[in-house]
TrEMBL record, chains A, B:
One function term, GO molecular function aspect: glutamate racemase activity
Catalytic residues of the enzyme: C87, C194
SUPFAM superfamilies per UniProt: Aspartate/glutamate racemase
Protein name listed in UniProt: Glutamate racemase
Amino acid sequence: MPVTLEELALGSMPPLHQPIGVFDSGVGGLTVLKALRARLPGRDFVYLGDTARVPYGRKPREMVAGFAGGIARFLIDQGAQAVVIACNTASSAALPDLAQQLEVPVWGVIEPGVEAATRATRGGRVGVIGTRGTIASGAYQRRLEVRGFAVWAQACPMFVHVVEEGLAGAPEAEVLTRHYLEERPDLDALILGCTHYPLLKDVVARVVGSGVTLVDSAEATAEVVSSALADLPGRTGRVRHFVTGDVAAYEHTAQVIGGVDGEVLHLDVAELARFEARAGVSRG
Amino acid sequence: MPVTLEELALGSMPPLHQPIGVFDSGVGGLTVLKALRARLPGRDFVYLGDTARVPYGRKPREMVAGFAGGIARFLIDQGAQAVVIACNTASSAALPDLAQQLEVPVWGVIEPGVEAATRATRGGRVGVIGTRGTIASGAYQRRLEVRGFAVWAQACPMFVHVVEEGLAGAPEAEVLTRHYLEERPDLDALILGCTHYPLLKDVVARVVGSGVTLVDSAEATAEVVSSALADLPGRTGRVRHFVTGDVAAYEHTAQVIGGVDGEVLHLDVAELARFEARAGVSRG
């Protein structure tokens, strides 16, 4: 049931209470949202899926940073007390600049994943898998190498599609996982460096075996954020979703991540562009 | 450079001359457009990629038929003298009803593919690969079986993504092709029953071997349409693209199909919904 922002402003919808803003290029960030809600059940959340401009992975870094800035400001305008960039590509492109510009705390998914891998590895042999954009950016590799780890990185461009097609438990997932991981060296930890990949945890675990600890960046991020932000005891958290693409398509795809809970509203990208344009303007 | 339909109506853009309308849920239909332009170099074309509502494959049949009706009427409103449904799912959902409702000729991609397979097979052992929607609809299987052929059908849901990711020549394409085709029986013809699949012709040919004739439904459709519509000698055909999703994303993805030639205009799906609503109204 799309409503316009004007209707929202007119109060036809109940306002969220001190929500936490979470965004991704699509549905992948819902894994982070789910992990956050499990830890902060009393908090409200406002989620934005930029499905009209998905995928971010192959777009120029500056463009993605601009998108992220516009979205973060929109979420703050919607009342967000903190912003979680639940997308590896946008985290890599927009942090730490965005953290310096915004008046609320902002987290990405890369640092928490790296920290969790640092705790998980015993021999310092760490692998990371992600989209082509994330792997090409070297964001994980640089942070892991300065810790003295031997790092193996592999782009898995078909994994997002396997998840979005609902095929995470199907033979395609197994065939592609074996393909992408067949040339891995001896590892003791493997970072799932894309917010879609937690849904492939079972098949990846089967292929790499129990000697490799899988690091779920959605869980790692939720842990970091929830330890910094207090829950609101006695409340039952609500979620409002905004999507820039088709609402029905979003709801359909989101089913593979357990479905959406809460209303889904369409938001025109032009609206986000207005917030992006404000990026250079003082918000004092 | 998006322009509004009002600007178009105001004549800021030169009108196309007796164009042929072609549409698909996304970029796949560009293979059909390319095959048509090779045969009708003097004709203008107006192409619509419904990228805001892609994929059609898992949407209800009636919904897809409605989309197709709205798009066909929009293309006719843009001057189209004929309409080519360059999408298997939409062809299956909207024909023959749409052919009876429209005042211009309309073709789909299924009948031409079946006809071409009928000419190609020697022993009557015909295979067809397509999206889950196309294979589940049984549209190819029914038409082939009434001709007395032994039919093998296989859904290949990851193939569209392999093509759209620009991985048609990459190891992923080979791994998935072997997976999808490994349990095939002895065939002598194989229909590429999705407009994206002509881009996988090389890898499919390598896997099935030279004893299997590949039937390219894009080529087959272009042959049927071009034999029915005259070229306009002495003219150089132009193309105008409309997309319901993001223009830059469309242009990027279209690169894997040789890129787009001609202007690309954004069209809001709400505009198409207005044409869809007219479906029930007499157009006399």
